[in-house]
Design brief:
globular, Ell-associated factor eaf, nucleus, single chain, 173 residues, mainly beta
Amino acid sequence: MANNTKEEPKSAPQSDRWYNLTLGPSFKNDSSNKFCTLRYEFKPASIDKTKAGSLHKTKENRVSVEFHNNQLGKPKVTFEGSSEEYKENDAVLFFDGESFRLERLHRAVKQLRHLRKPGESAAAAAAAASSAPPAAAAAVEPRLSPVAKGGAKPAQPQAHLSKPAFQAVPVSF
């Protein structure tokens, strides 16, 4: 019997033992279960892992992912990337402590880049506090990290980030 709790198993599968393996509902053509992977270029420690985040996808396959910040008063931790379909033979294997379940992967969200916001880093906060009043510091434009090399201008966030084309989907770590 499979363990129906949503907790992560306390142990890994044991060696030299056979486990039941089932195909999950995502393998059925009419299934509403969809699985995707997220690949981050950088994931800051400031993400609050105790709270669910949200994911926004546009018709142009651009994806934004937001998480709460674990530092009080700091802005949400935001990422932007692109989405593409997996091949039909790509899957993910889940272990619930007693058995395995294979689920088909549908989308890959790649190149999730951390979108920095004003005052997010300690260096930016110190510079803003010493050289400009708080109102001027809030006017600084957000930019993608890491900063572009060779003096190139960093990419600016797209306007669609503040107006998602689709409803947010909960994401958790």
